[in-house]
């Protein structure tokens, strides 16, 4: 037996297709059915890799009695937050306003007009049944109060916060204040910011790297060093095969929530690449290579894109694939190597996780590298024989854009063409399949484009990825498409009071048109567009695009010094806008001549990214673009070329500096 979700394309919705709940997808027909039946709507929002979403599904949605009560009391709508981030954003804002916190699964009760009058997150079965009874009583006996509550919440959501134009462009002092605020919040012993749980602060680290590139402040780099090393050595990082879990439930990065998300790993790949470029850290380089390989090996799809996530659970048990006991290590490795591995990885008889299991940590580098490599290879084989977590294989435009940027830069800096090739294949899929008549789709799966329209984040992150790919390959297609995406976004997402809405002007109308200038798990739509506009302006010499970029950075002036942890990418873009751009252009013979060899020789940590392209006259041009933490610090020279005497790699390196 299946319900209406059996026809969905979302892996998350398909997980619920066999529930006895009579689920609807988010459609006008669902709300019309609620009006016809004169009942509220129960909106349940989650995602395929979410542990607590699975728990609530097992306890409530798979239970016949609970499902019967839901079917009687409500029209039940299930939404994949990754497929419809606009719906998730609007009702999560309501949930946070009503309860003081948010999370997934998100559970909201709505009037048939979509107004929320109750909100929460995970409910165990007894409390959920109480909620159903209370909602039924309120709807039948106090309808006017319920409807009035929903209207008041909608009115509160409609009160727009200040737009970007209400604040000036941030100054260097603004960014200095943001960095100082982060220094007050840093955990210098264990890395990261705040207490448990700890999330990987990817965008904040990117800002700090750019800030250090401008200021050379050692305290700023220390925040990056401490956090990057702690995350890479803890249980949140897969010590055997690479890739980061979603977050750590403790302050020491020991026990993760085990889902592995594309957006986390794409952003962390770029951060560790830039950390390596700044410090030459061997640990950073190891994480870069392992994480890039994880993306290609575990998240790559047959069509050339990257899947959204690996599940937190395996066979309904969190961590089953990844955690170990000392006995399991000895069984896989033999007694001597098993005991050595247990000491090295911090696997204890009592365990560091549930069920007496331990996550793998690597708090110190092994003193026997060949032995360690052999142990890792054998443990990977043993782990592969275990049940494996499920994979959400839908391709999300924005997150794949982040992956394109990270892989293109990694391939260019490490001299690894296969990473650039993977970025190119992903870009081709998105441009050929997701982009139709200038408009982006949010997702695809198995080569089939989804119905959900792209949001601002999709346009900004994909443009960012295509611009990074252009710099790595000098293939003009990527620059051209990025420019088209940005022009469309500026036209369709514009806010009259400055900045960009999350949805286009012709998108489905919800109870509020979503707009959030703060960065969450990935760059906000507004900040993603600002960063891509800034990069595009540097590459084509467009004052208009630069003005559009800096025109929305007033939000950084407003929030950056107060809440920099929630505006990491905005601060990073502002840092790039204020610190750059610069460029050195060298014209000479192409091919395998001395100039090309010299250019390749300086692609080392702290040096430059190199791209080769013909100039307007058709002669080979090597554009050496020093970067500030990954942002192009380069205006392309138009109309003239600086002719520099360069004969050796050392000459070129000295000139670049």
Please provide a brief summary of the model.
This protein is α+β, with helices and mostly antiparallel strands and 657 residues long. Strand 6 (247-248) and strand 7 (256-257) form a beta hairpin.
**Into how many domains do the coordinates divide?**
4
Which parts are unreliable, with pLDDT below 50 for 5 consecutive residues or more?
584-657
The CATH architecture name of the largest domain reads Alpha/alpha barrel
Q: Which CATH C-level class of the largest domain is it?
A: Mainly Alpha
* Largest pleated sheet: 5 strands, mixed
As a whole number of angstroms, the C-alpha radius of gyration is 25 Å
Distance from first to last alpha carbon: 67 Å
Give me the count of strands. 21
- Find the CATH topology of the largest domain: Glycosyltransferase
Helix content: 40-55%
Structure overview:
Helices cover about 50% and strands about 10% of the residues. It is an alpha+beta fold and about 650 residues long. The strands form 7 sheets. It has a 5-stranded mixed sheet, with helices on both faces. Strands 18, 19, 20 and 21 form a 4-stranded antiparallel sheet that branches. The protein has a 3-stranded antiparallel sheet with strand order 8-9-12. It has 25 helices and 21 strands. Strand 14 (about 435) and strand 15 (about 440) form a beta hairpin. The longest helix has 18 residues, at about 260-280.
């Amino acid at each position: 037996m299946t319900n209406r979700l059996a026809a969905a394309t979302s892996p998350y919705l398909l997980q619920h297709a066999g529930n006895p709940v009579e689920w609807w997808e988010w459609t006008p027909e669902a709300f019309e059915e609620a009006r016809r039946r004169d009942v509220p709507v129960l909106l349940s929002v989650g995602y395929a890799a979410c542990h607590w979403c699975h728990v609530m599904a097992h306890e409530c949605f798979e239970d016949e009695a609970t499902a019967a009560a839901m079917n009687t009391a409500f029209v039940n709508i299930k939404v994949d937050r990754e497929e419809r981030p606009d719906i998730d954003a609007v009702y999560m804002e309501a949930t946070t306003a009503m309860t003081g916190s948010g999370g997934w699964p998100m559970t909201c009760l709505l009037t048939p007009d979509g107004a929320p009058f109750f909100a929460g997150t995970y409910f165990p079965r007894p409390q959920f049944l109480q909620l159903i009874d209370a909602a039924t009583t309120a709807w039948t006996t106090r309808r006017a109060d319920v409807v009035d509550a929903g209207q008041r919440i909608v009115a509160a959501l409609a009160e727009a916060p200040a737009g970007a134009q209400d604040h000036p462009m941030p100054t260097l002092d603004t960014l200095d204040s943001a960095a100082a605020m982060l220094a007050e919040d840093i955990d210098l012993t264990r890395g990261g910011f705040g207490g448990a749980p700890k999330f990987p602060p990817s965008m904040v680290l990117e800002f700090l790297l750019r800030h250090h590139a401008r200021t050379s402040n050692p305290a700023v780099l220390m925040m990056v060093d401490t956090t990057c090393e702690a995350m890479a050595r803890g249980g949140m990082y897969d010590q055997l095969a690479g890739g980061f879990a979603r977050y750590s439930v403790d302050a020491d990065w020991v026990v993760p929530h085990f889902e592995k998300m594309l957006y986390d790993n794409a952003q962390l790949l770029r951060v560790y690449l830039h950390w390596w470029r700044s410090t030459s850290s061997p640990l950073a380089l190891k994480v870069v290579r392992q994480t890039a390989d994880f993306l290609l090996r575990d998240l790559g799809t047959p069509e050339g894109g990257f899947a959204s996530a690996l599940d937190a659970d395996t066979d309904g048990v969190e961590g089953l694939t990844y955690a170990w006991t000392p006995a399991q290590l000895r069984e896989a490795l033999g007694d001597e190597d098993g005991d050595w591995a247990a000491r090295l990885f911090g696997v204890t008889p009592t365990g560091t996780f549930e069920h007496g299991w331990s996550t793998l940590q690597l708090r110190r580098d092994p003193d026997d590298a060949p032995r360690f490599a052999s142990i890792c290879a054998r443990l990977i084989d043993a782990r592969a024989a275990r049940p494996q977590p499920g994979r959400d294989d839908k391709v999300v435009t924005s997150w794949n854009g982040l992956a394109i940027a990270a892989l293109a830069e990694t391939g260019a800096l490490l001299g690894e063409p296969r990473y650039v090739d993977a970025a190119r294949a992903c870009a081709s899929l998105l441009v050929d399949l997701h982009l139709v008549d200038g408009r982006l789709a949010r997702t695809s799966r198995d080569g089939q484009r989804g119905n959900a329209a792209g949001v601002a984040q999709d346009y900004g992150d994909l443009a960012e990825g295509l611009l990074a790919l252009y710099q790595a390959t000098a293939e003009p297609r990527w620059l051209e498409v990025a420019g088209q995406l940005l022009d469309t976004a500026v036209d369709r997402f514009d806010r009259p009071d400055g900045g960009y809405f999350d949805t286009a002007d012709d998108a489905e109308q919800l109870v509020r048109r979503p707009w959030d200038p703060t960065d969450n798990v990935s760059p906000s739509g507004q900040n993603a567009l600002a960063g891509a506009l800034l990069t595009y302006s540097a590459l084509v010499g467009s004052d208009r695009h630069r003005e559009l970029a800096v025109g929305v950075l007033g939000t950084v002036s407003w929030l950056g010094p107060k809440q920099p942890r929630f505006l990491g990418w905005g601060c990073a873009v502002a840092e790039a806008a204020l610190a750059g751009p610069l460029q050195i252009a060298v014209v000479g013979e192409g091919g395998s001549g001395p100039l090309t060899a010299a250019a390749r020789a300086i692609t080392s940590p702290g040096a430059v990214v190199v791209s080769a392209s013909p100039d307007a006259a058709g002669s080979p041009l090597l554009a050496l673009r020093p970067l500030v933490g990954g942002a192009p610090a380069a205006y392309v020279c138009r109309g003239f070329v600086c002719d520099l005497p360069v004969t050796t790699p050392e000459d070129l390196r000295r000139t670049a500096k």
